[in-house]
Amino acid sequence: MTGVAESTVSFHSLFAQELPELSVPWQAEEAPEPRLLVLNEALAGELGLEPAFLRSPGGTKFLVGNEVPQDAAPVAMAYAGHQFGGYSPLLGDGRALLLGELSLHGRTPGGLRDVHLKGSGRTPFARAGDGRAVVGPMLREYLVSEAMHALGIPTTRSLAVVATGRPVRRETMLPGAVLVRVAASHLRVGTFQYARATDNIDLLRRLADHAIARHYPAAGKAGNPYLALFRSVVEAQASLVAQWMLVGFVHGVMNTDNMTISGETIDYGPCAFMDTFNPAAVYSSIDTGGRYAYANQPVVAEWNLARLAESLLPLIDEDQERAVEPAVAALGEFRRRYSDAWTAGMSAKLGLRGHPEGSPEAEEVSRLVDGVIALLKDGPVDYTRFFRSLGEAARGNTRAARGMVLDLAAFDAWAERWRAMGPDAALMDGVNPVYIPRNHLVEEALAAATAGDLAPFRRLVAVLSEPYKGRPGLERYEEGAPESFGDYLTFCGT
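Structure (tokenized):
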């Protein structure tokens, strides 16, 4: 393909070739008038793709899947999943395609990145859907996934959003678009659930071997590689969800088909960052019962991992009854690993470096963490601004942080104990962001972009690319939503 640096990049179809039972060969729907809306030039460079080519007519057709390299074999991926607790035996890419994998570092599986299209048209898994996507939700995923990357949280990335030139019917007619997503892989807990449901143990084993090669090669050297794979996923997900919680991110649809084996955040549909701290925060229009509320995310993650364990039992031991005990023990590590990651992260947010477990200092840090959460729960406190303001409090100016809480006496008592521990303000500034994707600003940018003005969107993306560095003139990007913004809900976009 013209414009692709062949010396550093080559398209593979590893998933399609190794696991043909888990996909259907398919082609993207023809986009009548593809037009590039946004391109992630830095990510393109990492993938060895020339931005100048991607901006050309041929490059734009490549990005919507209408002109792909000869060595690419686009497929719609099959998977199952528990959606809001109910099992669906067949979900799959109803409006998406895996074009293939690009090499970052030679041809080793660990150096591969999936190139995946979202909104590319109906597939055999589409059911009643039209297979299309619209500009607003695709730009949302671009913006939030790249914001997560800038925050240092494992995530799928966004290479581009391309308008298709085809109107799409939702509540009204909206402009259609395709998102080009990049991921370490698109293997999900639901992928393993689908393979397990086939009763084809050879397929399940090949899938597990593929996952080990892609993500956890050390597990392949373990005495029981499939138990080691499960432990690795448990560890990755415990770390990931702790990072979500530390920045106030609410995923919104933690179905098993939206939990990756790699430990990357995937699928930014009904998602949002908290403004005011609220353990019961829900931003999904379809999560009426609060199953995926902010405070429930660690519990749901553990539940999802139990479903992965069930799928892996035949590989962990041929006698599945014998496999249960080690699988349960491995799952039991989730709570400890999550707790350790949360405690370490909260300690850093408070500027308190690690102390030996069980020491008086460590116990005091734990009490201080509990105390700050109690302060947040006591009243409407802006989660992000409060922690950022604590950095100034560590330098001696407590006014901003103190002014956010209702119980001033409780804050003063807590702050006196906290400052006695010698918090490191520089450490705090490196983990407490100034800028997050504020919901009112996201909606403002998406509304403008849908109407044809991408300037607010580009500005917001640029601000969020350096979340820990405060900059003059960007004060409105630090502020919470105005009272007129009201209750906030997000939608899946289908």
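Residues 1-9 have pLDDT under 50 and may be disordered. The longest helix spans residues 320-349.
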